[in-house]
Specification:
Structural class of chain A: mainly alpha
Number of strands of chain A: 2
Number of helices of chain A: 14
Oligomer: heterodimer
Shape of chain A: globular
CATH class of chain A: Mainly Alpha
Helix content of chain A: over 70%
Helix content of chain B: 25-40%
Largest sheet of chain A: 2 strands, antiparallel
Mean pLDDT of chain B: 87
Strand order of the largest sheet of chain A: 1-2
Low-confidence stretches of chain B: none
Largest sheet of chain B: 9 strands, mixed
Strand content of chain A: under 5%
Order of helices and strands of chain A: HHHHHHHHHHHEEHHH
Structural class of chain B: alpha/beta
Number of helices of chain B: 13
Low-confidence stretches of chain A: none
């Protein structure tokens, strides 16, 4: 099949894992961590990341003896009907992620940089660029992400450092936030934010070997989680919880606040480019994963023809919510329901079944 | 290369052309850059008087930049709110107003007393405003008057003058540069008092010290407008601090009290302190002082009552000893250090007493009490106004004279018979 992937290494895998899990830091997601955990909001993404990575590694370990991608594995473990359900669920997750990211990044472009441009044009352009990237293949997306990765990390860390004059460490107190138990529960609850990491298992044959997948996930999600956590930490120090909770775009607000002198200020325009690139690559990767699952489900000879269809569908769906506040609410809802179930329930079923199968094999050998 | 494989490349090129266009862009000669915004209570009920200071770019260019040439124009509109004022501004001005270059928001005294909740909210929300804008309050006058009378000589633009004043504020500690970011954060948390730099207009015919001198004080304390000045020139004076409770102005801090605020916040960079000569009270001694180490504030909570121990080290360099007494000697130096420390401590104590009457935690003592609250909700539920009023404060300011400038042994001037 023409969509059969190539041989991606740790560098591409790390970048892919990063770009699948990171773009939401540029959206309203950090604010939901503040809502859930107040001054301890920086801990929530760490817990979410550790949980997601733990589940990923368990699933990876449990299925390491099986060949093929996650669809082949679920077929071997659960049979065809159940594997179809899993693929359907995967399509739903990745496609909804495309729609939510598309809408939010388009809205934010209007909000921050191009207020007089027609919203539909921005959405269409985003979708078209994402479709072209997906058309070029996952390796292209991964390598483009790898190229932009250092720039994203340096840019973010630079903004966080330049905000030093605004740091108020006491804004991190009371250190328990909304309570330790609430924070832990919120951390586990928001693990759904990292569901896209499982895209690496979907694309497992695209990697050189199992170790590449595992290492990529650890590095990619690790870097993403740590940077998100540091960003939220700085956000709390700079804005405090009361004001921070009101913001739509925490990262944009932080970059707008940089004011070191009369000559070093108004630098946010540089960072808008960074987050737009990161957002588009994230949308592209999710779009590719949706197309990949579709083509595997319907045994299509190539995934390329369905990419434009999926992109147009995503644009149509992205335009359904009437206002941005509803999209933010919907995003939160998806993360705390479907994405959360996706990250806990499906891996739990696969891990348990794989464990029983392996045990059965061992018992039979005795 | 087949047409099929060229498709993505062509697609990328087309996209690059489309997205790099200047959608919504405007030429600079279509835009009016507003540099400062003045807000006053209107004489008409339910309206605010909005004064825009707009740059005249032509006169700022190389060809037009002549001393004395008008570089900005003020436009005042009475409107229901900022958005309506902007609409109305657009009806009389051909260029589109752009607010993204505003350096300062200046609030008239009356409006500040009435409350700023309806003013600051939109400023923080609207994209064109930046939280790095400075906020100033005009004492006993209007922003309209200030913007119309502000005539700096050294700067082409009045707003450049304001910005430069704010950037150099730490040289005297007599006023605190306050950005909207800090003001709004304090206003929203509710446990700290927002404050803003205080500005006023001097009529050149007044000498009006604003407070009684403490025993060791040799200089007068002032609020804007009270400094004795002669001649003509820019009537603006930046002195002191406007203190808010919630979103309403409750009082003023003098220049010296503002300096104490800087010291207690650990943001005291540099200033000249003047104290009565401890051995010759009719003379004064000057010290170029700065903060030696950040203030150490320890909070305690016992029986629902807070107490704060504050210790600050100020260090400095003696710059003038008119009495001719050898304060460089170890014994005399200690006497002088004690005199400076006592002066600052007295000022700090009276500063705290004054802010206690308003229930206004201007310094931000509540930060240090936060560890006593297990959760954020508990902290937010506390009645900070009452806690601040009832708290005990023990301030210990020590002064260390590190240097004695270019002299190490002062000798008195010989009196010839």
């Amino acid at each position: 099949m023409s969509y059969r992937p190539g041989q991606m290494g740790i560098a591409e895998g790390t970048a892919l894992a990063f770009i699948l899990t990171f773009p939401r830091v540029f959206l309203t997601t950090p604010v939901s961590h503040l809502d859930n955990s107040a001054t301890l909001g920086w801990l929530s993404p760490l817990l979410a990341g550790i949980t997601a990575l733990g589940i990923f590694l368990l699933l990876h370990q449990a299925t390491s003896g099986f060949s093929g991608d996650i669809i082949n594995i679920s077929q071997q473990l659960l049979g065809k009907p159940a594997s179809w359900l899993i693929v359907f669920y995967g399509i739903f997750l990745f496609m909804s992620n495309v729609v939510l990211l598309l809408r939010q990044f388009a809205e934010n472009t209007l909000l921050t940089a191009l207020p007089s441009v027609e919203f539909a044009i921005v959405t269409l352009l985003y979708a078209a660029i994402a479709a072209i990237s997906a058309y070029l293949g996952i390796e292209v997306i991964a390598r483009a992400s790898y190229l932009i990765l250092p720039l994203i990390i340096v840019a973010i860390l630079l903004v966080l450092l330049l905000l030093y004059p605004y740091y108020q460490f006491y804004n991190l107190l009371p250190w328990q936030g909304n309570g330790i138990s609430k924070t832990i529960s919120a951390g586990f609850g928001s693990a759904g934010l990292e569901f896209a990491l499982f895209g690496l298992l979907v694309l497992r044959p695209a990697f050189q070997n199992n170790r590449t997948v595992r290492t990529s996930a650890v590095y990619g999600l690790g870097a993403s989680t740590v940077i998100v956590s540091i960003s939220i930490l700085v956000f709390i120090m700079v804005f405090g919880v009361a004001v921070g909770r009101e913001k739509v775009l925490p990262f944009f607000e932080m970059s707008r606040l940089v004011y070191l002198s009369r000559y070093l200020q108004r630098i946010e325009a540089l960072f808008i480019i960074i987050w737009v690139v990161a957002g588009i690559l994230g949308i592209s990767a999710n779009l590719y994963l949706t197309a990949y699952l579709f083509s595997r489900l319907f045994k299509l000879p190539s995934l390329r023809p369905i990419i434009p269809l999926l992109a147009i569908t995503a644009v149509e769906l992205a335009m359904i919510p009437s206002d941005v506040a509803s999209v933010i609410e919907l995003d939160r809802y998806m993360v705390t329901t479907y994405y959360r179930w996706g990250i806990y329930i499906i891996p739990a079923i696969l891990i348990t079944t794989a464990w029983f199968k392996k045990k059965k094999k061992v018992d039979a050998c005795r | 290369m087949s047409l099929k494989s060229k498709f993505p490349i062509i697609g990328v090129m087309v996209m690059a052309m489309l997205v790099s266009g200047c959608n919504g862009a405007r030429e600079t000669d279509q835009v009016a850059y507003i540099l400062a915004l003045g807000l006053d209570k209107s004489a008409i009920e339910g309206k605010v008087l909005v004064t825009y200071q707009i740059a005249i770019p032509r006169s700022l260019g190389e060809a037009g930049s002549k001393i004395g040439e008008q570089t900005s124009v003020n436009v005042s509109i009475e409107a229901a709110n900022l958005a309506e004022a902007r609409n109305l501004l657009n009806t009389r001005m051909a260029r589109l107003p752009n607010l993204s270059h505003i350096k300062a928001i200046i609030i008239g005294d009356e409006l500040a007393k009435k409350g700023l909740v309806e003013v600051v909210g939109p400023i923080v929300r609207f994209r064109e405003f930046r939280e790095t804008m400075y906020i100033l309050v005009v004492k006993d006058d209007s922003a309209y008057n200030l913007l119309n009378k502000l005539k700096p000589r050294l700067e082409f633009l009045p707003t450049r003058y304001i910005e430069t004043m704010m950037l150099t504020a730490r040289e005297s500690g007599y006023f605190r540069p306050t950005q909207i970011h800090d003001f709004y954060q304090r206003m929203k948390t509710g446990c700290m008092s927002p404050y803003a730099a205080l500005v006023g207009l001097n009529s050149f015919d007044r000498y009006q010290p604003s407070a009684q001198k403490s025993p060791r004080e040799k200089v007068d304390e002032y609020l804007p407008g009270g400094v004795p000045r002669k001649g003509v020139g820019n009537p603006a004076e930046f002195l002191g601090t406007a203190v808010f409770q919630g979103n309403k102005l409750v009082g003023y801090l003098t220049n010296e009290e503002t300096r104490i605020l800087s010291i207690l916040q650990g943001d005291f960079q540099n200033a000249y302190l003047v104290v009565q000569d401890p051995l010759k009270p009719d003379k004064a001694v000057n010290l170029n002082a700065r903060i030696g180490s950040p203030p150490k504030i320890k909070a305690r909570l016992a029986n629902g009552k807070l107490s704060f121990d504050v210790s600050v080290l100020i260090e400095g360099e003696v710059t003038a000893i008119p009495s001719g007494i050898n304060y460089e000697s170890e014994q005399n130096r200690k006497i002088l250090e004690h005199a400076f420390a006592q002066l600052l401590q007295d000022q700090a104590n009276s500063f705290i007493e004054k802010t206690k009457t308003w229930g206004a935690d201007v310094v931000g003592f509540n930060y240090y009490a936060r560890p006593f609250f297990p959760t954020y909700d508990d902290f937010m539920k506390a009645d900070w106004r009452q806690l601040y009023r009832n708290a005990d404060y023990k301030v210990n300011i020590s002064v260390k004279i590190r240097r004695t400038a270019l002299m190490w042994r002062t000798t008195p001037v010989r009196q010839l018979k």
